[in-house]
Structures are given as structure tokens and as C-alpha cells.
């Protein structure tokens, strides 16, 4: 239910609340006064408050306004304590001071404000990035992260480093004919960099690994040979069922495919007219169709064909581990939903 905002009666109990206001209607004033009430009425230490805005300039202004509010409230309370003439104050603050008639309560509030003003420079009044950086620094020892993390703005060098390690350790150890077939099918270092870039930018990517998908902890060569055999067996079953369609439609192309092999399998996959034949041992690993930084991520990831989903997951984790060791804060922490193959 929509209610009009009242600075001195707004509830301070735990919960999620939204204040909606147009430009110039007093949002900063309202935040500063709510901080005053949280410090005094709710008895929250300033170190337990988190005040976040978008830019460094806005954070500096907000810190200044909160400090001014605390100081004005302190002067008003001290004037009431000494029965001196109260300083000039806005109507909201004057109304708030009326709630401090009790001497014990007033002195308690004065003590809270003195402590808050002393801690103001260390308060969490910052930007979103500033809060994340400060949190990483505070938790560096317990998490094993860098003591002084840097905000990463371009991960190209790190992506290329991870892909080069993968290419050297996994792909270059394959037999020549298998590597040639993979390259002809579209797998390249550039395609892998692009696929990892899209995955790294997805906060909740979805990759559904199949039961017989590759094990990322085992070498690729032996698994690829076994996988090719399973693909050929599935193809033979589909050929028995739908081979007549292919023979009648593409006789010359079908006769040119001889025996199992990665190159022959790719030729069949490109030429087969029937959907079930194209699905036999499909090697595409595609992301859900969604917009990532103005692009269609499906076209990006599909360019890195033949990447098993579980290996993509491992490469993404490797990228984030390398980023952590390099001291960069990187993208959003946490992997979200499992990565997956979708069609």
C-alpha cells in the first residue's frame, strides 16, 4: 500500500521498504534524517549502517549531509540539556527534538551522536563498487583474496591466458586428425575466448550437461575417442531408421562419407536433411537466447563448437580463480544456476 513519507514516523523495524521520489524532492534529506533516527531511536551503531549511492561525488555529498544532520541534532539536544535557546532548525528536526523531552533519553542520544560523528569517516557511505572493494579487503584473510583488490575493467588478457593454457594442455595433446577435425568444425582459441567472455558476463548462465558428458577432471584425448565411438553408434541407429531419406535426397554426399571419424561426422551433420540425423551426437554447446551487453549470446557461444558443457564450466571457474589470484574483483561472485546445454 502506498503511503506518504513522514520522516519522523517512518517505521524503523526490520523489513524491505521502497521510497520513491522525483528529482529534487528531498531524497538525500530523507536518508540523512533516517540515519539520524537509526542511530538514536533504534540504537544502531554507525558501523552497522550501509548507505549506498551511484557515484563518488554523490557518496561524498551524502556523507557530508549525514554529518551535518548529526551535528544539527546534537546542537539541538545540547541546547535542550542546558535550557539554552535552541539553534535554528528545519520543521522536521524541530518535531524530532520534541521527542527528546526525557532527560535520560536525551543524554543517551547525545552519547550516540558523539560516537557517530567520531566514526563518520569510517562509515559505509559509498558507491556499490566501493562497498564491494571494501568488503573484499575486510575479508581478504579469511577468503584468501588479494589484500588490495583492483576493479577489473578489461579481462581480455586474462581470458587469453586461460584459453592458451587450455589449448596447450588439452587440445594440442590430441591426435592430429582429431585436432584438424575440431578446427574444421569451428573450434579455435578465438572462439573459446569469445565463449568464455559471454559465460563470464552471465550472472546466471544455464548449461545442462548430459549424463555421458565429458569429465573436466580427466584428459580430453581418451574421452574424445570414446565419445566419437558413441556418436557413431547413435548415428548408425538413426541411419537404419532415416537413411532412406538421406539416400534419396543427397546420394552423392552420403556416399562420400566413409566410416566413423570426426571429420566425416561433421560432414554428415552439415549435409543431413533430417533433424534427427543432425541431432546425432550434436556437438554444439549453445547458451539460452538472451541479450548480453546488447548482443545475442547464442551466436557467441555457438561459435565455440565442440566445447563440452562441463568443460565450459571448469574453464569459467578457472578464469575466476585466475582473476582472484591476479587481485581483480571481476564479475559477480557466485556461479548461480548450473551451466547448460539448451536447444
Task: Write structural notes for this entry.
The chain has 343 residues and is mainly alpha-helical. The chain has two domains: 27-138, Rossmann fold; 156-326, no CATH class. The chain contains 15 helices and four strands. The strands form two sheets. A two-stranded parallel ribbon has the order 1-2. Strand 3 (291-292) and strand 4 form a beta hairpin. Helix 7 crosses helix 9. The longest helix has 30 residues, at 220-249. The two termini are 43 Å apart.
Key phrases:
2 domains; 15 helices; 343 residues; two-stranded antiparallel ribbon; Rossmann fold; elongated; mainly alpha; two-stranded parallel sheet; single chain
What is the count of DSSP helices, taking H or I runs of 4+ residues?
15
**What is the share of helical residues?**
55-70%
- Distance from first to last alpha carbon: 43 Å
Detail the poorly predicted runs.
Answer: 257-306, 328-343
Largest sheet: 2 strands, parallel
Oligomer: single chain
Task: Work out the radius of gyration.
Answer: 31 Å
Strand content: under 5%
H and E order: HEHHHEHHHHHHHHHEEHH
Given the C-alpha coordinates, what overall shape results? elongated
Counting structural domains, the number is 2
Query: Mean pLDDT, nearest integer?
Result: 75
The number of distinct β-strands equals 4
Structural class: mainly alpha
Question: Order of strands in the sheet with the most strands?
Answer: 1-2
